[in-house]
Amino acid sequence: MQPTVRRSRKVNADPTIRQIGNDWARHWNAGELDEVVAAYAADAVYLPPHHEAVHGRDAIREYLKAPLSHGVSDLAFEVTYIKQQGPVAWDVGTYRMTIPQNDGTKKEDHGKYLTVWRRVGKAWLIAADAWSSDLPASA
């Protein structure tokens, strides 16, 4: 008797993650915080530059309120690549955004990001999100 071979249908994360990233930026630029945060797993970790790690979707929501209300805008992502191993994927790319300055001017920031995704049921959710600016650190 031959063993039964089960073939699992691989779910390609790439197009879904690209769409979620585009939606994330669109929601951010529209000031829709709840829609932005919906992309994160309940136990996600957010790793912003010059700040300690932020653990959990609710804490991420609280953290993101400040830059959103400060007027950080014109956010755009460009995916460099997405790799996948089963129910885990990672997304590497670049970003650009506009940051209001205290003197009323605006400064463009640009840098890179690494996002780790986890498949939960039929959804891809952000498990870990890290980014850093390519601009020199302020004194």
Description:
By secondary structure, the protein is α+β, with helices and mostly antiparallel strands. The protein has a single domain (14-133), classed as Roll (Nuclear Transport Factor 2, Chain: A), CATH 3.10.450.50. Helices cover 25% and strands 45% of the residues. A 6-stranded mixed β-sheet has the order 2-1-6-5-4-3, with helices on one face. The chain starts with 13 loop residues before the first helix and ends in a 6-residue tail after the last strand. Mean pLDDT is 92; it is low at 1-8.
Itemize the secondary structure elements and their pairings.
Blueprint: H1 14-29, H2 33-37, E1 40-47, E2 54-55, H3 57-70, E3 73-85, E4 88-100, E5 106-120, E6 123-133
Parallel strand pairs: 1-6
Antiparallel strand pairs: 1-2, 3-4, 4-5, 5-6
Which runs of at least 5 residues are low in confidence (pLDDT < 50)? Answer: 1-8
What count of structural domains? 1
Report Rg: 17 Å
Order of helices and strands: HHEEHEEEE
The CATH architecture term is: Roll
Task: Explain briefly what this protein structure is.
With 139 residues, the protein is an alpha+beta fold. Helices cover 25% and strands 45% of the residues.
Which terms would index this structure?
6-stranded mixed beta sheet; 3 helices; alpha+beta
